[in-house]
Design goal:
The protein is α+β, with helices and mostly antiparallel strands. It is built from 12 helices and 11 strands.
């Protein structure tokens, strides 16, 4: 079992991005380093031997010229002293052979010849170098020569006197020191390549981790998002493709979180709707059931039958109104609900409303006064919804106003369309003011006994769906003012054109 696990772990390791990137990078670096090392070593060796060959060629040419001059001057002793000086001063201790050309018309004097070829057994390559010199050619060769006792470099140079090759100079250097220098240099090159590879492998680890770690982090974040933890973030800040991908995942996380919040809100709206319906309908259903049971049991006198029927009808109408308000409020709170907008003149809306509420306002002798500065106040919206919103406010203003008072409707334009509805009623306390837009909030005043507590919540949602907002100011005993602010039609059109 352990063996299978080890094999499985090895397979996983080989499939990891870090391993693949690191291995590919390491192989590439190794191949590149080996190629560069081999090329550099070959160039170095070639260049070193070429320099050594040029040195031998110049020295052999100099000795050949000196020898030719001594032959012309007939100065044998001076040349021999020169050879001794050269051999003593040169640290490489070269062997200098002067050989007479037997094929010349006037061969070099044998006194100047320090080697007799008849007494020396030479290799074929050495003989070729000497014969090439006799043919007025300079030839270089290197290798292992038994006659010289080891690895050597040789060069033959012709000795020319009066346009005739009278002999040759053979210059031989032991190449052991040069080979040691080359080997030392090769060692340094190999060492440099090894150190460079070691450093490169460390850089490769950092480079591979720089790619694999962010990807692993993004993978973990994606799994967390799949598990519903939408607050998870990659926390990767890079200015490359990996950074772009990380930012995309973070954007996705934000969108998923927003969608989850929206889903929860919708679910809460649904739960609240059913809870509110069940809570608010429990009482009227209980009342209707009690009256119906009394009628069925026949315990109600004939004088009260019609009264019971009337009460049942009233409760049914109240439930119908309540369900309608709940459905409307639930629809307004749905984020997907979109109001169909068209140009609406607010003055026309209030003219329609004043006619509608005239009957109830006349009962309390309440006047409704409109203050305006322009012939029209246009905005984009749903006429029926806007009318319903202001009807709720006007109905409350009339309900909570004293007899013989006035309701002021003030229309104005700034950068927004401002609508103020102010009554001279009983006002709202500072403690109750923050809660008036809550669902099912109802004041304990007798004027609100028949209310459902949904009117102001509906009005506020209608305002929000039209891109506006509503504020309320109130003082006990003085009155209440609702101030609505909406985008003017002109601003709306200008924004669409932009």
């Amino acid at each position: 079992m352990d063996k299978k696990n080890r094999v499985r772990n090895k397979v996983r390791l080989k499939n990891r991005l870090f391993f693949k990137v690191y291995i590919n990078y390491a192989i590439m670096l190794t191949v590149l380093a080996v190629l560069v090392g081999l090329i550099f070593m070959n160039l170095y060796e070639t260049k070193t031997m070429d320099n050594y060959r040029n040195k031998l060629s110049k020295q052999a040419s100099s000795i050949s010229d000196k020898l030719a001059q001594r032959i012309i001057d007939n100065d044998d002793e001076s040349y021999l002293e020169y050879l001794e000086t050269v051999q003593e001063l040169d640290t490489d201790k070269p062997d200098i052979w002067t050989i007479s050309n037997p094929n010349a018309a006037v061969p070099m004097d044998r006194k100047l010849q320090n080697v007799n070829l008849d007494d020396v057994k030479l290799s074929e390559e050495c003989v070729d170098v000497i014969e090439a010199a006799f043919r007025n050619l300079s030839k270089y060769a290197s290798g292992y020569y038994e006659e010289f006792g080891g690895a050597s470099a040789i060069i033959g140079m012709p000795v020319r006197v009066n346009d005739e090759i009278v002999g040759a100079v053979l210059l031989r250097y032991a190449t052991k020191d040069q080979e040691e220098i080359i080997q030392s240099s090769m060692y340094l090159i190999f060492l440099s390549v090894g150190v460079a590879l070691f450093i490169s492998f460390i850089i490769a680890i950092v480079f591979a981790k720089g790619i694999s770690n962010p990807i692993s982090r993004m993978s973990s974040t994606a799994l967390e998002l799949a598990g519903g933890r939408y607050e998870s973030k990659t926390n990767i800040n890079r200015k490359d493709e990996i950074g772009d991908l990380a930012r995309t995942i973070d954007v996705l996380a934000n969108e998923l979180k927003a969608n989850e919040i929206e889903r929860q809100n919708r679910e809460q709206v649904r739960v609240d709707f059913f809870a509110n319906v069940s809570h608010e309908l429990r009482t009227p259903i209980t009342v209707i059931r009690a009256y119906a049971e009394s009628l069925v049991d026949g315990v109600v006198t004939e004088e009260k039958v019609n009264q019971y029927y009337q009460r049942i009808l009233t409760e049914c109408k109240g439930m119908e109104r309540l369900v309608g308000d709940l459905l409307l409020l639930s629809k307004m709170q749905n984020p997907d609900f979109v109001v169909e907008k068209e140009p609406v003149n607010i003055l026309q809306v209030f003219d329609d409303l004043i006619r509608s509420v005239h009957a109830i306002s006349e009962e309390k002798n309440i006047k409704i006064k409109i203050t305006k500065e322009h012939p029209s106040y246009m905005m984009m919206g749903d006429y029926d919804r806007i009318r319903q919103m202001f009807l709720i406010i006007l109905d409350n203003a009339i309900k909570f106003s004293d007899d013989n008072s006035t309701i002021h409707i003030i229309l104005s334009k700034t950068d927004k369309l401002i609508i103020s509805i102010k009554d001279e009623g009983i006002g709202i306390s500072a403690e109750d003011l923050p809660s008036i837009f809550d669902k099912f909030y109802k004041s304990k005043l007798k004027q609100n006994k028949q209310g459902s507590g949904l009117g102001l919540a509906i009005a506020r949602q209608i305002a929000l769906k039209h891109g506006g907002n509503v504020e309320v100011f109130s003082t006990l005993g003085i009155g209440t003012e609702f101030v609505f602010a909406f985008q003017c039609l002109e601003e709306y059109v200008e924004e669409l054109n932009i």
